[in-house]
Amino acid sequence: MTTMRDLIVGPDTPTPPYPILVEGTVVEGFGRGGKQLGIPTANLPSSVVDQALENIPIGVYYGWAQVQDDIVRPMVMSLGWNPYFKNEKRSGEVHIIHEFKEDFYGNNMKVAILAYIRAEKDYTSLEALVEDIQCDIRAAQESLKRAEYAAVQNSSFFNQA
How far apart are CA 109 and CA 26, in angstroms? Predict the structure, then answer.
């Protein structure tokens, strides 16, 4: 089954409440993003999820992320309960669209959330979940090419010393 969705998501320019800018230390999650799904995630600390992100709907978002002083890269973020895995705690899991050679637990991560992609879903199979995440990644990559979204990559939020 192939999931068909629009590749451009969100308005032509980020509109309030976006961008939402958060940062925190990457914490260990459930260990299934990279291992089970083949889509590694960097998890935001619960303090960021519980406070800075408490007023936005659960679901999937896109934007930009930076770990330590690395370059700013596109990302998709799942904010929610991950019903397929039956989480008991809301989490913020960021997939930076890049293949990293090592984990970066304990490093600082900055995230600029620019738009909502879709609501959180429950899935009947792991394959369906992975397929939908791949669609989210493609939508993020295409949506971030628009000038107003691309400009955030070079914003002062990421370029602070």
Answer: 6
Q: Which residues pair with 77 in a beta bridge?
A: 61, 94
In angstroms, how far is the first alpha carbon of the chain from the final one?
Answer: 46
pLDDT in tens, 119-140: 988 888 888 888 999 999 999 9
148 is an active site residue: no
Handedness of CA 70, 76, 81, 85 (dihedral sign): negative
- Does residue 115 contact residue 14 with C-beta atoms inside 8 Å? yes
What are the residues whose beta carbons fall under 8 Å from the beta carbon of 141, sequence distance 6 or more? 74, 97
Six token digits for residue 126: 């792991």
Q: Which of 28, 54, 88, 93 is catalytic?
A: 93
Alpha-carbon distance 20 to 85, whole Å? Answer: 27
Q: Which amino acid is at 121?
A: K
Bridge partner list, 20:
113
Q: Are the CB atoms for 141 and 97 separated by under 8 Å? A: yes
Least confident range from 12-21, 26-35, 134-143: namely 26-35
